[in-house]
Known about the structure:
single chain
Amino acid sequence: MNKVGKAILNYLIKGLLIVVPIAVSIFIVVWAVTTVDSWLNVNNILGVNPRTGESRNIPGLGLLTVLTIILLAGIFVTNLVTEPMYNWFQRMMQRLPLLNFIYSSIKDLTEAFVGDEKKFNHPVLVEVEGGLKKSDF
């Protein structure tokens, strides 16, 4: 295969790696919302429209239900699965002296840039004696 063919194949694969997850995610969300909308039978609560005889539909009820389920799943995983596992891992690392030193150093460094308590988020002005010359750059 020539260079152009390899480049096109490479771009095609990279494009698929971007487009396919997005498309599948959109498909799953649309499918979930329409499925939940069809499951929710509000006729039992609101009854049938007396003028037309059609069942009543609440727009967005399926979307609201799916978002609520996703939110509850996130809360469940964060508080009942992720946090206890993280605490267990921290306790295990504290028992290993050399690994604890390396792990805590790397953890402190990464938290300084990305953590909740960023340590390098304020600019600092430093005066240099003698000034800067153009040749210093």
